Amino acid sequence: MKMHEYQAKELFRKFGIPVPQGLVARTAEEAFGATKEIMGPPWVVKAQIHAGGRGKGGGVRIAQTPEDVKKAAKAILETPLVTKQTGPEGRKVNQVLVEQGVEIDRELYLAVVIDRAKAMPVLIFSSAGGMEIEEVAEKTPELVLKQLIDPGTGWMPYHARTPAYSLDPLPDPDTLKDLMSLMANLYRAFIALDCSLAEINPLVVTKDGKLIALDAKINIDDNALVRQKDLKALEDPTEKDPLDYKAEKYNLNYIRLSGNIGAMVNGAGLAMATMDVIKLAGAEPANFLDVGGGASEEMVTRGLEIILEDENVKAILINIFGGILRCDVLARGVLAGAEKTAIKVPLIVRLEGTNVEEGRKILQESNLKFMVARDMVEAAEMVTAQVKKTA
Ligand code: ADP
Ligand code: MG
């Protein structure tokens, strides 16, 4: 789960990580009003969306007067913000953060993420803050330092000392000490909040040697949300992909991918195998969709709706092995989905298992247009042939 910068900053504050003073505003007038309470000038007006690269896209603006804050907020709220991470259509901004402008002396990068290969949290630190870390890692990998933290033994002072003392030139002793305790605090937050990412870019050193997190990004591991109810409440549904949101609502395991074959499958293992055979046949899946071993008719209907709402889908493959989910239930779910949203792309069905005859009969007696595949390989080949034809 992603969250907004202002929410992440509030959490940082609780863990002793200094952040600028700031207030959220939903209108230009509110932004104007915020200047009465926030130190300034200058003020910085920042678009609150779940995407980075806002600075370069015009989503972070410096203002010298309350009037300019109002203008900046209006401009940001009025037009969708396009950044490297939003796609060309951009993202509508519903709120801005009005923040105290900080005098920057030095921009650093600090994050804790999971190193999946090592199965451990890793602290990432760089003297090249404020830039995209991926780019820094590519062009100047020597500037990106990594410090693995064994969660069994936990945090050790050297985890901070090693990266902090690599800075050249070294900051003042007090700043250095603050930096090391900030690193420990970020790790503490990362663990306590079940993060998959906690990132500060830039972490700045001000002209008077103070450390402040100017940006804040926290992602929570979705699997931990059951025990992080307070954090779950911070979720902003307007920021979610509408299809992801719908899938979550109906308990479907859905992941959007970049291909053009919409696949509806029951069971995660079969869904993975289906994606493999689609790829082997020379095409790319548009999604992973596991309606679940014991899906109801309604879930099948919703699953099909989600696939139909995805504009990238050029052909659909339904691959069901009827176990707990019976083939007749599946067939009725498909028909209900097709009734709501016309299926304008080729549909290939492969059904096996419990009540398969009845399932086939239901589909055949309907006015749904579809092709039947005998097995998975044939199904993948058929669906691939269909997308190749339309391409
Ligand atoms: P993004 O990463 O989405 O571009 P940031 O929050 O990192 O957004 O802001 C972009 C840049 O704007 C920062 O690198 C920093 O130079 C500047 N900036 C952001 N917030 C402030 C602030 N409160 N005071 C001064 N400069 C800021
Ligand atoms: Mg940033």
Question: What's the short version?
Answer:
This protein has 391 residues and is of the alpha+beta class. It is built from 13 helices and 16 strands.
Record the SSE blueprint.
Blueprint: H1 5-14, E1 22-25, H2 28-34, E2 43-47, E3 60-63, H3 66-78, E4 96-100, E5 104-115, E6 120-126, H4 133-139, E7 144-148, H5 157-164, H6 173-192, E8 195-206, E9 211-213, E10 217-220, H7 229-232, H8 242-249, E11 253-256, E12 261-265, H9 268-280, E13 287-290, H10 297-309, E14 315-322, H11 327-340, E15 347-353, H12 356-365, E16 371-372, H13 376-390
Parallel strand pairs: 12-14, 14-15, 15-16
Antiparallel strand pairs: 1-4, 2-3, 2-4, 5-6, 5-8, 6-7, 8-9, 8-10, 11-13
Helix pairs in contact: 2-3, 5-6, 9-13, 10-11, 11-12
The chain binds adenosine-5'-diphosphate and magnesium ion.
